[in-house]
Amino acid sequence: MTLTNMVGVRCFFKLLYAIVVLILLHMNNPCIGCSERESQALLALKQGLVADDGGPSLSWGREAQNKDCCGWDGVHCSDQTGHVVKLDLQDQYLQGQIPSRIGNLQELDSLDLSRNQINGRIPISISWINRIGYLDLSENNLSGKIPIGTQLQTFDSAYGGNPLLCGEPLPRICSEEEKGPRQFVLVNEDDKDGLITQGFYISMGLGFAVGFWGVCGTLLLNMSCRYTYFNFLTFLNDWLYVNVEIIRQRILNK
């Protein structure tokens, strides 16, 4: 192998390495984190639940630098995806009702609103959070029928201290009045897709620009890399042509 070919091969592998690094960086882009949809769901929860003593929910979104809801008090996000996975607002003197938009926290694994003064019904949208593995709504003033969901009926101790709640898994049977009208909640109303944000478009543009000029710019400016690249394409084309012809001849000879 001549010196020129060796330099070309090294250049080719450097290009390949750069492409792999760019792909990995784009996959781990920090813009994919606490989404606008999750932020709006938490702000709706803030409006529905009021803390008389200025509890943590009242500080959500108050300052411009707090736009990332992963930094809000009581909110915990995944280190891998950045999505909200835990909401802990126990014992915060919260009053009011749980809004239906809480169902937009689709990645939520743990929800603790215990030991507050929350009233009203449990929104049916909570039953749509399929990932939830821990739920505690005990010691509140909740009332009405517990929504029917795959997981909501498995949390036996999640509803204690709410004497006006009824339905499974509680032994208290609901009256017709307590069952209330059938609820149809449109959780996604006026919400944006969690991934399609301004940061998503910016990251796409930067990724395309860096990837395009990182590869094409190198081919345009470095003759040895360009020579190696087109030689590789020629070799690949010849290899495919020969193998296709061999397979075709084998089929015809049978």
TrEMBL record:
Pfam families noted in UniProt: LRR_1 (PF00560), LRRNT_2 (PF08263)
Cellular compartments annotated: Membrane
Membrane-topology descriptor: Single-pass type I membrane protein
Transmembrane segments: 200-221
Annotated protein name in UniProt: Probable leucine-rich repeat receptor-like protein kinase IMK3 isoform X3
Every Leucine-rich repeat-containing N-terminal plant-type domain range: 37-78
UniProt signal peptide: 1-33
Keyword Glycoprotein annotated: yes
Keyword annotations: Glycoprotein, Leucine-rich repeat, Membrane, Receptor, Repeat, Signal, Transmembrane, Transmembrane helix
One term under GO cellular component: membrane
Keyword Glycoprotein: yes
Domain of life according to the entry: Eukaryota
